[in-house]
Amino acid sequence: MSHFYRIVAIIPLQINDRINRFAEFCFFTMHRLISSLIVILLLFYSGVSPSMLPALGQETEGESRVIPPPPRQVDPDDPTKLTQAEQDSSDPERAYNPKTGQNLHWDCNKKTWVDSKTGKKVGFEGAKSGGEVIPPPPRQVDPDDPTQLTQAEQDLSNPKRAYNPKTGQNLHWDSKEKTWVDSKTGEKVGLKGAKTKKPCPKPKTVSATIKKVAVVVVVCCLIATAIAVPIAVGVGSHHHHNNNADQQVALFHLLRARDAEPPARVETVP
């Protein structure tokens, strides 16, 4: 029976020890797994940015890109008329409106004209289709009055199509050649605005630099944590296992010593 009691006394300690080891294994496994996933996500987020992905309608380096004309605005001197800033012939990404005294510059990343003084986006004349800037068709001489100009109107539902009721001309936009084309004759008729082969500069912001530095710091901290925490907890776990083993040995010797004691003598009174 004494052997049975020893086994029964030691079993709870062994079960507790196994449970502790299993819990520590789960902790280390989940800790490393979560740390690895965080590192992978941070590296992916910092290494792949939307500016690196090809976007529909976005020009690549070396290709021509379109600079549409600034939008028409109400004439401050005569609200019944419209006025429009004129693009600089030497730098079509700059424009000036003598009526309003407004200086504009073209933001090729945001694809809009911007008031250089206020920073307000003012848009452009034309439309967008799938992210591509579609400038308006060029002005042409009115066949009924050579002293006047006429212009085809873009289709609102499909801005790559245009029609001129004065000339009966149907036009379509050629995205590759960056020009309007007479759908009947195939003649290139150009566009209103300008084209340039100067590549669009990528936006450089302080926040992007800070983000990269923060990612590097976080990754270094996670790596250091992944290395240091298992070592520190492992040392504590080793002491924990030793304590359990010492408890088991002490209990074993205690029970053994109790069994080895001679039975108490019982004296009877005659």
How are the elements arranged and paired?
Blueprint (H helix, E strand, L loop, with lengths): L1 H46 L17 E3 L4 E3 L7 E3 L1 E2 L6 E4 L4 E6 L4 E4 L5 E3 L3 E3 L2 E3 L4 E4 L2 E7 L1 E2 L6 E4 L4 E6 L4 E4 L5 E3 L3 E3 L9 H55 L10
Antiparallel strand pairs: 1-18, 2-3, 4-5, 5-6, 6-7, 7-8, 9-10, 11-12, 13-14, 14-15, 15-16, 16-17
Short synopsis of the structure:
The protein is an alpha+beta fold and 270 residues long. It is built from 2 helices and 18 strands. A hairpin with a 6-residue loop joins strand 13 (153-154) and strand 14 (161-164).
Detailed description of the structure:
- The chain is 37% helix and 25% strand.
- Strands 4-5-6-7-8 form a 5-stranded antiparallel sheet, with no helix packed on it. Strands 13-14-15-16-17 form a 5-stranded antiparallel sheet, with no helix packed on it. Strands 1-18 form a two-stranded antiparallel ribbon.
- A hairpin with a 4-residue loop joins strand 5 and strand 6.
- With 270 residues, it is an alpha+beta fold.
- The longest helix has 55 residues, at 206-260.
- Helix 1 (2-47) runs antiparallel to helix 2 (206-260).
- The protein has helices spanning 2-47, 206-260; strands at residues 65-67, 72-74, 82-84, 86-87, 94-97, 102-107, 112-115, 121-123, 127-129, 132-134, 139-142, 145-151, 153-154, 161-164, 169-174, 179-182, 188-190, 194-196.
- It is elongated.
- The protein starts with a helix and ends in a 10-residue tail after the last helix.
- The chain has 2 domains: 2-49 and 205-260; 65-196, no CATH class.
- It has 2 helices and 18 strands.
